[in-house]
Amino acid sequence: MTGYKVLVVEDSPTMRQLIVFALKRIRGFQIVEANDGVDGLKKLSAEKFDLILTDINMPIMDGLKLVSMVRNDPNYKETPIIVITTEGAIEDRERALALGANEYITKPIQTMKILETVKKLMSV
Amino acid sequence: MSHHDEENDTAGRADEFLQVFKKGAEFTQDLLKENERLRFRVVKLEEALKEKGPDVVADGPEALELKKKILELEQEKEEILGQIKVVEEENQNFANRYVEIEEENNMLANLYIASYQLHSTLDFKEVLKIIQEIVINLIGAEEFAVLLLDEKTNLLEPVASEGLEISALPSIAVGSGIIGETVDSGENYFIESMHGYVCDFQKPIVCIPLKIKEHVIGVISIYKLFEQKDEFTNVDYELFTLLAGHAATAVFSSRMYSDSERKLSTIQGFIDLLTK
Question: In this structure, is the dihedral angle defined by the CA atoms of residues B83, B84, B85 and B88, taken in order, positive or negative?
Answer without folding.
Answer: positive
